Amino acid sequence: MNETKLIRALQRGQRGALDKVISHYSSYVASIARNVSGVQTTREDLEEIVSDVFIALWRTAERLDETRPLKSYLAAIARNAAVDRLRRIRPEEPLPEEDILSADEAQGPEAEALKREQAETLRRLLLEMAADDREIFVRFYYYRQTVREIAALLGRNESTVKARLARGRARLRERLIREVDGNAHL
Questions:
Q1: Do residues 79 and 32 make contact, with C-beta atoms less than 8 angstroms apart?
Q2: CA distance 26 to 70
Q3: I want to staple 111 with a disulfide (CB 3.0 to 4.6 A). Which of 71, 86, 106, 145 is the partner?
């Protein structure tokens, strides 16, 4: 059965189609969920994430686009399900420090202290953003989702997502410059 026929069968609510998708894509979905959630997720959590992905697929099957690969749709759902699970497990840690810090490999205590300070400033500024803007920003820069994926998952227009990213970058830049100038006068 080709993918277009499989998507049409899902849209018609044929249970056998879901069974085929589960059989064919379970390991792919688990791999994505594992990569996003890392070591923080137990095997049981990972199994739940995979189940949640296929339940979400079943519930939203009528909205599938036959011209788009099912694999990319499942990948987006898996990433979001893993992120949601991480938020439930560790809601007070929005971003791991090692992923915020720059790739600059400068050594020494001063450089490490500066990196930690920059990461903390960025975390604080992200938390000050409006929740919708922060979610778009984190999905794009931290989870590396595309504008198209974010728009589809949040039910927004792609141009809206792009505009929010641009405004968010401008606000962050402005706030960082103000903070640097403010600290320079101390």
A1: yes
A2: 13
A3: 106
